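Write out this protein's structure.
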Amino acid sequence: MPHEWISLLEDLYKAFGETALMVGVSSVFAILGGLPLGFLLYVSDRRLFWHSPALYRVGGFIVNVIRSVPFVILLVVLLPFTQFVLGTTIGPAAASVPLSVAAIAFYARLVQSALYEVDPGIIEAAEAFGASPARILGVVLFREALPGFLRGLTVTLVSLIGYSAMAGIVGGGGVGDLAIRFGYYRYQTDIMLVTVLVLIVLVQLVQSGGDRLAERSDRKGS
């Protein structure tokens, strides 16, 4: 094997680890932040337990603002916040901060959409049987919307993989950054093709795995 390809495999291994770190961290924050935020938007809008038009408008406005800003610009805008949180703006951990912010807003809307798809009759039946608000939220709604949550998380993961390719702007590294540095700036088309192929395979694995989990949860819920 030529020395340059051995070096490429080493760089690719390192870049894959950086991409996994960025996507993994931001995915965790997407679940921890986006899931309750999606529930909050749904509850405050649907007159379910706690109807608050003001809260819905404020929350929806913030989510829409974050989602409407192109991720490249969001990276730059959040540099001071990243510096405040981590003390640095360079590296995959630093890139995970704007990725997490974008992921929370993105996933929150998908969670809200999945909750809207739940049959209102199921909620009314649970209320008629005297189920508490916590039980309706944590058991009835969550179980019924779980396939939608998983599909939304899959879409979020795929989007984060694409966003992570822009992390090179803040020195975040990753597979996308490797493709840009070697394939674009150095005109090494073969390296770009290899890195793009890796990204394609990664996205396909995430998509197929997410679809299987969603289908399995849908069968269990039916």
